[in-house]
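Annex B. Sample input.
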Amino acid sequence: MSGFDAKVLPAAYRWLGSIGTLPRMLAEGLALYGVRETAGAGNTSAILDWAREAKVAGYRADATAWCGLYLAVVARRAGWAVPDGPLWALNWGKFGVAADRPMLGDVMTFVRPGGGHVGLYVGEDAAAWHVLGGNQGNAVGFARIARGRMRAVRRPPYRLAPATVGVRRLAAAGGLSVNEA
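Annex B, continued. Sample output.
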């Protein structure tokens, strides 16, 4: 499992480095925190490498939405099966097992103008879900997404979930994301 340095995370999320064993997908996702797509005609080689590693055919440029690709590489590294068509964010609504409500490390899908978005639950406040995801502000990072945009919550099929899996109440700091890209 990849490690991550909590000191590089935004202050509001540094607690993730001190609560104990994280769900594997979340730990793998945090290890990629800060990877950013290349503006313009260039591509970030790490993002293109994820497509090869996750066996996602047809991904050729980081200008193409990559939230589903990010989740595909995170899921594979964590040892979980990737749903068919992982580049289509809403296909992650078929991942793992259905959950009644999100808990730390769960996969969440969202609707947005022109399609969908997918990320990992980190916490919540009264108005929003706090999500770690790829292609949030063109990088792997955190976003607050309005509760009403949620489409599905899916949980890895744990034999035994880490003790840290649970609901996390967080401060409502920062604006709401309206269209992750």
